[in-house]
Fold each of these.
Amino acid sequence: MADVDELVRKLGDTDPKVRMYAARALENAAYYRADITIVISALAEALSDKDARVRCSAAEALGSAARPGVDMTVAMSALAAALSDKNASVQSCAASALGYAAQYGAGMTVAILALAKALSDKISGVRWNAASALGKAIEKCATIEALDEMETRLRGEHGALKEKYRYGKEAELARLGSAFSKLISEAARRRDALVPERDILLDDLPKPPKKGRGEIYCQMRRVTNG
């Protein structure tokens, strides 16, 4: 693998192809956690490159940087901003990267908010990647609090969407509403899976004393003779 410092320098090359290949090479560096802080910072900056191919490569590489214990604050903020990129391919790459990173619990709050907004993007590919990424994030949510926040964000964005498409775009609203409803249901299902089963909780309650066989027999006689 090429020297990380050299690859970072190549991100500033005048040739966009060199910058793109440098970003892809840094993806390997990110995967193997070589000088990870330097790699993340350089790739986050590359998301502002004037060439869309470089921005796509940088987004994909940032997604690969996510691992347990890695500080992804800078990366997640940069990827969230990239969801508003003028290029649809960059938006889709950013959505996928956010979903991948969120699987490791990295920047979950930032990812949820950004991806929920992307569900109503005008580009269908961006919406699909955002929904897919949110689905992955839901499956990896480890706390009820995170799922509650996700559901709140989704409901909020859905409400804003209904206001936006109040008149004349009922079909569009129905289609997007279906995606929101599905994700909200998935979040609720995941939250329920984290809550102990009801009958397990009932086992902790005090139980009435068991009756002896003789007492049960006497009660049956009284019912029969009554």
Amino acid sequence: MSLHGQIVITVLCVLGLVYVVVLTVSRALSEAWCLLWIGTLSAALVLANVRPLLDWITREMGARYPASALTMVAIFLLVLLAINSHREATLHSRQIAALTRQLALLRATVEAAHPDPLFTQGRSTAEACRAAETGSEGGTRRPAEEGNG
């Protein structure tokens, strides 16, 4: 790889590292993802600047040019990151489904244990709570609140 190519990759990796750290400090990126991205960018930085290592990987991969080997390694690392993203999304999806089921059971339990026709006015508890939060209860108040207004 040419000196110009090494400089470009080094600058891009350093900018990427700074961006990852800024995202992590601002809490827009979790620490686990920060470590993954730092590892990926550091590997690219090392491969681009340690010529004997890149030449060895090029020979072992059967590639003709170091840039081709570097591209193949980068694609492999990005595929691993994508797989990890999908794994986390699947876990979060399952957690959301479980929490939704628990919330539905809790709402049903509350509605069965404490029916309050003055509060719900024929609506589900969830609808009544949403109306109470937005202040669009239709001007109705509980009798105990009449004098507190």
Amino acid sequence: MTLLRNIKNGIQNFWHYRKIVWRHRDWDYGFILEMMKFQITDLATYLEKYGWEVDEGRLPKIAQMKRVIELLENERNDNFAERCGWKLSHFDWKKREDGTYELIRDTSEISDEELSAIFKAAQILEDDEWKECMNLLKDIKTWWD
């Protein structure tokens, strides 16, 4: 009976994780973040709907999980520069004589100092959010019902 149950659960698990497994690659930490985000999202959804723990203990854990999901999404999207004021319109593609393209910066829209400040702020934001995420994950052992 245990073997049949394990086979059934294995098939159900594979079906549940099929999209994340299909996209998985082992050369980049981003795919680890995707898997973690997927699993934490499942757990938060389950605890919100079916959790037995009293709200005083359960809701802060769910809030932590949602914040971790948001931070993982930010890391995966690498949107820190945009959130600090960088715009794609600061750059444009220029066609070269040989038919290739060169990325050039529109210096009339933003100065070197402003661009440097944006990227410095973006790096600080990324570092701060990564530290926050790792700090929140320290409580992962308590994220169960």
